[in-house]
Description:
With 225 residues, this protein is an alpha/beta fold. It folds into two domains: 3-101; 106-223, E3 ubiquitin-protein ligase SopA (Pectate Lyase C-like, 3 Solenoid). The chain has helices spanning 3-12, 23-35, 42-49, 66-78, 80-98, 108-116, 214-219, and strands at residues 104-105, 121-123, 125-131, 141-143, 146-150, 160-162, 165-167, 180-182, 185-187, 200-202, 204-206, 209-212. Strands 1-3-5-7-9-11-12 form a seven-stranded mixed sheet.
Amino acid sequence: MNRETIEILNKLKESPSSENVDHILLLQKIYSEYSNGIIELKPIAIFYLNGFDDLPALREKHLWNELKFDEIRKSFVDAHNELIDLIDETLNGIKDKESDSFDYRLSKTEFLEQIQSGKVIFEEIELENMDLRNQKLSGITFKNCFISADFRNSDLTNTKFIKSNIKTSDFRNAYLTNALMENVSFEATRFKGAKTNGFIFNDNYIHSAKGIGQTEFNDWIIETE
Length: 225
């Protein structure tokens, strides 16, 4: 299970009275992850479907009468302790199952050595605060990874980032020709000057906004610096 999902589960444990956490939106993401094959999330997905999948999210609050909004969400607030128990059981089960691979962090040396040995698919790894400028990283697939890296001027041709979490990363002047970013959560990431011929940016997340795609990338994300 990737780090973003773990972060979502922990955020869901925060008080539903807080407007800093949109619990319904996060539960939707967890259900989506379950639907995409992460079976460990089944108890939380069932909790969501058993009465909360039609509740309004915080971002919709301005569309509702506030008293009616609070009334509709009361059942979720009352059941929040049950959700916390399910989350704790899920996280403990994942730790027991995955043990040391629960949060697999690679050093720059380890990562580049694996690439040089011919490895092209990386799943559930963490690349944190990594300087990968001017590297040849073409044809690699990152899936369910947590990435915070400097890719400036690197060759990422045909590279795929799928269902991953990309934070404080830098793709300025990188070669993203025919690359793919799909179902990725972004934060504080820059793309100014990247070469994006044939680049596909599909169904991604930026902060609380989901479904960010090619139009948004071409209109403003590509200009971030």
